[in-house]
Structure of Lysoplasmalogenase:
Amino acid sequence: MPKRALLEHRPWLLAAIAAATVYFFVREWPIGELWLILLKGAGVGFLAIYAWQRHASADGRLLALVMALSALGDMLLELDFVWGGAAFFASHLAAMSLYLRNGREAPAPSQKALAVALLIGTPLISWLFTRDEGIALYALALGGMAACAWMSRFPRYRVGFGALLFVISDWLIFARMGPLASSALPGLLVWPAYFAGHFLIATGVIQTLRRNV
């Protein structure tokens, strides 16, 4: 990476990692609800700035919107579960638009099969965890996002895997409402899986867009 690019753009990735890491360790501290909300949104929020600055194309702007809506969802979840879910629902729709604009030309049958499994299995498993129709509807968009990511031209083992991590993080949240209600596992894994998923998506998409300039 050229020195100028390193100075201008990589700090946003480092800032995102730093904010997400600090939030994970201080989220239970009595430092004030407002500060925790802002810190929580900063991790993916910095990824939105990274995407906006690294690629000025329509796809780059769309990726920045995806990240910004997720960051908004992070903060709104601390205030209202429904409003936070709505922001993430919008993020999934924006992500699907991005991935559909960048479809893979000749996907293998195994890729198609996994995409169908994600589209159907994500809302089904979410409903089995919660028995909540609203969450199942949200998870339909979540599964659609992951399926479209897997079928896109972006690298599957970065963007596709990042989308799978997003699905897993939400499944852990939903499992906390049911079979894992008394387990500490979701609390330990939800945030790392969620942020890592977004980090992989942001860097994977930008890498591909810049390579094809």
In short: The first helix runs from residue 3 to 8. The two ends are 15 Å apart (CA to CA).
